[in-house]
């Protein structure tokens, strides 16, 4: 077991918080503006896939709350509900400390 911990430590040598997720847009709120005047869009994504874990196939299905702030909101506003895309950004905790929030910074 110590050997696998060493391998993980080598991978995690520098702090990183980056998420790239293929998902479908399943919910979108109305465009709003931050106190600084930036456009902000709250939405929800759904991901489904089949991945290998320890040489076993595993079905993965999840929904995640997301937010976009700034110019990326324009691209997200053009997506229809059900449209798929590749969403990239970072994770943060929610204000109330319950759960995660995906901050989308780019859409591919």
Average pLDDT number:
90
- Described by the principal axes of the CA atoms, the overall outline is globular
Oligomer: single chain
| CATH topology tier name | OB fold (Dihydrolipoamide Acetyltransferase, E2P)
Keywords:
OB fold (Dihydrolipoamide Acetyltransferase, E2P); 5-stranded mixed beta barrel; 2 helices; 16% helix; 55% strand; globular
Please tell me about this protein's structure.
The termini are far apart. Strands 1-3-4-6-5 form a five-stranded mixed barrel. It has a single domain, classed as OB fold (Dihydrolipoamide Acetyltransferase, E2P), CATH 2.40.50. By secondary structure, it is an alpha+beta fold. A hairpin with a 6-residue loop joins β5 (84-93) and β6 (100-107). Helices cover 16% and strands 55% of the residues.
Short structural summary:
With about 110 residues, this protein is of the alpha+beta class. The chain has helices spanning about 1-10, 70-80; strands at about 20-30, 30-35, 40-55, 55-70, 85-95, 100-105. It has one domain (about 15-105): Beta Barrel (OB fold (Dihydrolipoamide Acetyltransferase, E2P)).
């Amino acid at each position: 077991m110590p050997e696998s911990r060493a391998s993980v430590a080598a991978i995690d040598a520098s702090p990183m918080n980056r998420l790239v997720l293929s998902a479908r847009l399943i919910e979108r709120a109305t465009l709003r503006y931050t106190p600084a005047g930036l456009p902000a869009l709250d939405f929800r994504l759904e991901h489904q896939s089949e991945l290998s874990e320890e040489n076993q196939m595993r079905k993965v299905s999840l929904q995640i709350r997301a937010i976009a702030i700034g110019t990326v909101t324009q691209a997200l506003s053009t997506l229809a509900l059900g449209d798929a895309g590749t969403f990239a950004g970072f994770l943060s905790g929610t204000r109330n400390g319950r759960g995660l929030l995906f901050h989308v910074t780019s859409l591919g």
